[in-house]
Amino acid sequence: MVGRGGAYYTVRIMKKAAHSIVLTALFAIPFLVLYVSGSMYFPFITGKGFLFRILIEIAASAYVVLALADKKYRPRFSWTLVLYAALTLWMFMADLFALNAHKALWSNYERMDGFVTLIHLFVFFVIAGSVLSVDKLWRKWWLTFLSATGLVCVYSLMQLLGSIQIHQGGVRVDATLGNAAYLAAYLLFALAITLWHAVESKGWLRYTLGVLAVAELVVLFYTATRGAILGVVGAAVLCAFLWMIGAGKKGQRYALVALVSLLVVVGGFWVMRDSAWVRSEPTLARISSITVSEGHTRFTLWGMAAEGVMKRPLVGYGHEGFNYIFNTYYKPSLYGQEPWFDRAHNVFVDWLVSGGIPAFLLFIGLLVSAVLALYRSEVSRAERIFLTGAIAAYAFQALFVFDNLFTYIPLAAILAMAHVASSRPFKQIDRLPVLGTTELNTVAPIMLVVGIALVWAVNIPSMRAAGDLVHAISGIPGGPQANLDYFKKAVADGSYGTQEIREQLVSYANSVAANPSASNQLKDEFVRFAISEMGKEVERAPLDARLRAQYALIYETGGQYDKALEQVNEAIALSPKKQSFYLQKANLLAS
Fold this sequence. Notes:
Layout: H1 4-28, H2 43-69, E1 76-77, H3 79-96, H4 101-106, H5 114-134, H6 138-160, H7 180-200, H8 203-223, H9 226-246, H10 249-271, H11 276-280, H12 282-288, H13 296-311, H14 322-328, H15 347-376, H16 381-397, H17 405-421, E2 424-425, H18 427-430, H19 437-472, H20 479-492, H21 498-513, H22 520-540, H23 545-557, H24 561-574, H25 579-590
Helix pairs in contact: 1-2, 1-5, 2-5, 2-19, 3-5, 3-15, 5-17, 6-7, 6-8, 7-8, 7-9, 7-16, 7-17, 9-10, 9-16, 13-14, 13-15, 15-16, 15-17, 19-20, 20-21, 21-22, 21-23, 22-23, 23-24, 24-25
């Protein structure tokens, strides 16, 4: 039997262990931006996504114990929390009613999005908002975030110097994110946070953050991402104006100088946009070439999205649902673009497509509520203005791109800060009793088991399949037979990425069938397996025209022209204006 003193120390040890686990996970998250998993499919995306989910699942299991043992760590009420929770719940319903609910809930390797990511981000928002605020660790967390940003900038500068290859090719730096637009959007947040902490710091730290801000601007410029660069300029103007309104005479003078300087630079660039020196610099040339006609593709996608949403205005098409709109409302004018679009390339339109009008309004309300919370709270002027600037820059560039994990994470962190700044206790939650030793001895092991089960079920099969898929499409000892074995393992792993696995299987089976050195037996085995697996994918998502076209392709490779023609006709019925389907049909009829 444990005495009163022993019980006290037992509870204290459990709280300390849970607290340490939560903080370790939270402070590890900023460094995920540096991780690239060469052993998994889509190495710049999957490794970061899986590790983020694992860290959140571990943190959530420990946080439940911590919150039950200590009231001060329990969630608090704010309208930002209500709107974020409402958006998450609404998207769960929308994804359940999606045309492909499985993909809406779990996404795929290329995007690592879906409801599974949304719920993890919401849990991150709740945990960070509670623990970092109670322990007054937000400053240290953001400085940790900026430490990771500094390493990203070093990597980017090495790309600029030619020491490290730019992964996309060309001259647009992409660092460890593998995509220049992703890097630029990440730097929008980092720059705002850097300037905020530089203003509020002194001595060597202020100068160090100043150097980091310059590095961030240089790297951002060389991403040549126009929406992000314009977003930074607009946010800088906004921040200077906001600072000028509330500052003293000295602050107003500095803000006015900054504002006028920005306007002069922007105006001067506009006047000289057609000059030789502007045209000779690739990034400046890209910015100066912005025209309404150049945005034709995005305007077309947004118009298609509007048509699609009119058919499902309430719940939309779920996460990963834009491809159904792209198929049904395809415009022949897109013939010269990439064959498949899975995003509208506008974050606000993507929410409209994914969750209908309610999700669109909830997302806008969430951003507005955060700004209002910052301005109604007692936070410092620098924090209020620079976080508002970060949200404004994000919102502007979001008109032209879509989100990724490292726009989601800093945005969720800013929302968490805004939430706490205007929060008050949840009376219903605070009334729940604090658990003692006996209860914690029961709850802690249960949460440990729950955490392990979550990590395994949500991540491990799909991580294993992502690795097997890399082997399946690579040149490995054993040749095509070994590749086939890996394809069979990848499918059997039970991941959520089966569509990508099966599409790669079709592509590889076609290459094996065209390989004169492969045996007829191996060719037949590859084709039969690919037909069987693609048939399963089509059965799960029968309204996906892309899958129908892939199914037709492998039937054609197997010489089953009648079945291939049947699938092409299905694809045409689903996307009657897509030219490539008619060309595919003509080739079949000529066979």
